[in-house]
Amino acid sequence: MNLFEYEGKALMREYGIPVPESHLIVSEGEAAPMAFPFVLKAQVMTGGRGKAGGVKVCENEADYEKYAHDILNMEIKGHRVHGLLAEQMMKAEKELYLSITLQGVAKPTLIASRMGGMDIETVSKENPEEIVKLEIDPFTGLKGYQLKYLAKKLGVEDKQDLFEMVKKVQDAFFKAGALLVEINPLGLVDGKLVAMDSKFVIDGHARHMQGKLSELEEAREKLHAYKAPEKEATTITYVPLDGDLGLISDGAGTGMLTLDLLNDAGGHVASFCELGGMTTEEVMYRAMDLTLTGHPEVKGVIIVLIGGFNRMDNMALGITKYVKEHDVKIPIFTRMCGTMEEVGLETMKEAGMPTYNILVDTVKEFVRTVEGGAGECQS
Amino acid sequence: MSILINKDSKVLVQAITGKSGSLQTKVMLEAGTNIVAGVTPGKGGQEVHGVPVYDYISEAKAAHDFDTVICFVPPAGAKDSCFEAIDSGIKVLVLTTEEIALHDVVEIIAYAKAHDTILVGPGCAGVIAPGVCKVGAHPVRFFTKGRVGVVSKSGALSYEIGKTLTDAGIGQSGVVAIGGGPIWGFTQKDAVALYEKDPDTDVIVLLGEIGGGSEEDAAAYIKEHVTKPVVSLIVGRNAPQGKSLGHAGAIVSGNVGTAKTKIAALQDAGVHVVKNPVEMVETIWTLL
Questions:
Q1: Please, which residues 89-108 of chain A have a Cβ atom closer than 8 Å to chain B?
Q2: Is residue A119 part of a domain?
Q3: Which of B98, B157, B232 to mutate to test the interface with A (most CBs of A within 10 A)?
Q4: Mean pLDDT by 10 residues, chain B (288 residues)
Q5: For chain A, how many structural domains are there in total?
Q6: Distance of CA A108 to the CA centre of its chain
Q7: Last residue of a domain, one of A200, A231, A262
Q8: Do A223 and A267 reside in the same domain of the chain?
Q9: Mind telling me the catalytic residues of B?
Q10: Which of A261, A339, A360 sits opposite B139 (nearest CB)?
Q11: B33 and B9 in contact (C-beta within 8 Å)?
Q12: What is the domain extent for residue A142?
């Protein structure tokens, strides 16, 4: 789960990381929460808000009224602004970059740079020598020599202050089961390091954080123009696309293969639906419902099943039940094989639903029937 | 011989009394796997399909020899169970459990590495040596003994390609599914390295998918160290940017993890990259 800056900073405070004083504002007309001047920062789930005009200094009441109105009604890179963080002004003598991540890396990795306040991807491309990367052993944490090396590379004078900051960030990373803790910039203010921004991503599978995450989600209801994303109770992944063919699979790999085969055959996929680890009759029924109601233009559905853990008898029950109850008229092509396929195929036959065995042939036949295209794999 | 497992493998099943554990134990036994014991805390003294059950691995070890463990323990207890398995001095641990917290996965991988245990997974279907035995969820019917070694992230895709090869009359020496990521113990590169050394494998099939950089790592390894022909299929060419299609690891962000970069790296390493299962079969026939 990605946290807003205000949520991340509240967590950082809990873990003892120094952050500026700040207050969340969720609507226009709220009284200024602190003495002028202060900074007003858009609370939005994307980067680049500064360039987009989402960060403004308020010197007085008039500034505050104007900027609060402007920023609250802003959309940045397609993301709605859901609040404002009014934050104490801080003049940084230096801006550093510091993060610990588990995204796109095999081990927890600390990334730091003297060139803070900029997009770290850009720094890494244009000034790779300015990036420090340290792998963290999960059983020992960062070791003394690693911290000293980091201090050297960052050219920090007050090493003790840096060590404390890094240890606290590391502590926050491990205790929160974080996938990312990023501070950019990490400001040097009056000789001490302060987290001036916060990006926090918490692993949705970190069981000890479930309470905290629901608490945060509940608190989001008071945000400006905020609608909680609908939560899927099953393990299904449903991704809407812009074509007209529904695709359901019982494996991510076969789902992606089928998506490619459909495209190569000239088909256009309306949605990608993968069942995930739970493969009961009810989950299959739910997948049918998502696929058939999620996209009004869907002209046909291809279901690709190859059961290992997944049982075909259950799958057939889910499919036939849905089709019967909803009187589905569009073509449903099912490729069914694997565990308990004899029972599953029999159920499908009784319901008068066609089944197939060879994936490539199923895809060709499906595209030919539904789209009327040539249905040949282009190579 | 296959990679990771062979006819001499002696296997212990963790969470053998659970729904998945007991069903898969039955199927593994039917496939010829020598399962010597199972473990479920609190269920010691029972039997599952004739396999004796113990509370702890140390108790099983007092009565049986084993070198391979397959773990079906749910996410909350998976880390501790893996530590217990690794502490017993095994060679291979197949971790099937999905949705384990990533910090737990990091610890399990580090612990396995420090103790010289090969960790396959997490969230994986495991490994099958067709006609010999299997330690995982692969449905036996899709596979047949032969000389093509397959590695895949996705379990279902490894069944799909196993079925495709079997339908075409091409047998396999081994089929490994390592899990959907985003981090792995045993990687595609590790599998390729083992198949290169395996005297029963003539052609290597590398099934990849978008996201991460593990196919690129495998390509770099192949370029330097692999003499056997490698055929590769990368799925997710048409996946939308920034969205995960069912596997946590299968996500393209910016220029990282695209099918294009993977295919280019593999082609540069001399790998035969194919677009679909039909091309795969045709290509393998020219190489066998």
A1: 102-104, 106-108
A2: yes
A3: B157
A4: 91 96 95 98 97 98 98 97 98 96 98 98 97 95 97 96 97 97 96 98 97 94 98 94 77 78 96 97 96
A5: 3
A6: 18
A7: A231
A8: no
A9: 247
A10: A339
A11: yes
A12: 1-20+91-231
Residues A360 and A261: beta-carbon distance below 8 Å: yes
Q: Which of A70, A89, A108 is the last residue of a domain?
A: A89
Amino acid at the residue B104: D
Superfamily of domain B10-120: NAD(P)-binding Rossmann-like Domain (3.40.50.720)
Alpha-carbon distance of B194 to B174, in angstroms, equals: 11
- Same domain as A5, residue A75: no
**Least CB–CB distance from A261: residue in B137, B155, B276:** B276
- Is residue A348 within 8 Å of A357, Cβ to Cβ? no
Percent share of chain A, pLDDT over 90: 86
| Amino acid type, B123 | G
Instruction: Identify the DSSP state of A32.
Output: P
Check: CB of residue B175 under 8 Å from CB of residue B202: no
Q: What is the ipTM of this complex?
A: 0.94
Q: Is A321 helix (H, G, I), strand (E, B) or coil?
A: helix
- Residue A43 and residue A118 share a domain: no
Return residue ranges of chain B for CATH 3.40.50.720.
10-120
Q: Hey, what CATH topology would domain B138-287 get?
A: Rossmann fold (3.40.50)
Cα–Cα distance list, B46 to A215, B15, B35, B41, B170 (Å): 43, 12, 15, 11, 41
The answer to whether position A378 is within a domain reads: no
**Helix, strand or coil for residue B128?**
strand
**Arithmetic mean of pLDDT, A346-356:** 97
- Residue A164, classed as helix, strand or coil, is helix
pLDDT tens digits, residue range A41-74?
999 999 889 889 999 999 999 999 999 999 999 9
Distance, in Å, from the CA atom of B154 to the CA atom of B228, rounded to the nearest integer, reads 23
Which residue in the block uniquely carries the two structure tokens 């396959």? B120
With CB atoms and an 8 Å threshold, state whether B103 touches A177: yes
Q: Any chain B CB within 8 A of the CB of A196? A: no
Query: Are A269 and B247 inside 8 Å of each other by CB?
Result: no
Please check whether residues A34 and A180 belong to one and the same domain.
no
Q: Has residue A377 been placed in a domain?
A: no
